[in-house]
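Entry 14. Two folds queued back to back today. First construct below, sequence then structure tokens.
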Amino acid sequence: MDVVARLASQRAVVIFSKSTCCMSHAIKRLFYEQGVSPAIIEIDQDMYGKDIEWALARLGCSPPVPAVFVGGKFVGTANTVMTLHLNGSLKKLLKDAGALWL
């Protein structure tokens, strides 16, 4: 879990993803279209990917990817992030974390 916390706190937005996951791709696109440049951790291409996946599952990520952290805090997986986007609260989270300036 320490590796996830360390990685999640390195940038304003961190997305744990798998390169072959369509929901991960959709979430990454959402952030890019918002003007955010997130750190992307492709766990299927990381040498510690299995450990990261296990740690994400222990945090309650089900499925483990995509897992989104904003300001070092776990926001949720695809369903939660899309809900926040649709109700307008994602932008505020991003601004508060310094990922958006406008």
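Second construct, same run, same settings:
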Amino acid sequence: MAGVSELESALQMEPAAFQALYSTQKPKLEDENLIFFCQMGKRGLQATQLAQGLGYTGARNYTGAYREWLQQEG
């Protein structure tokens, strides 16, 4: 996915259109773990808040961000 600016329209697409564009199933509103992250943390939080506002109750932000994950796991 291109970024936070594209996320809102993507999450409002019909499932078939989402599948065609992104080659994966669209998340369901009731999915328990829809995890967002970014390199530093700010965009991941914005994406999480946007998804929650659209009704994705299981949207979560990986607060450590990608950079921390790389340091821990990489």
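Quick look at the second one. The first helix runs from residue 4 to 11. The longest strand covers residues 34-36.
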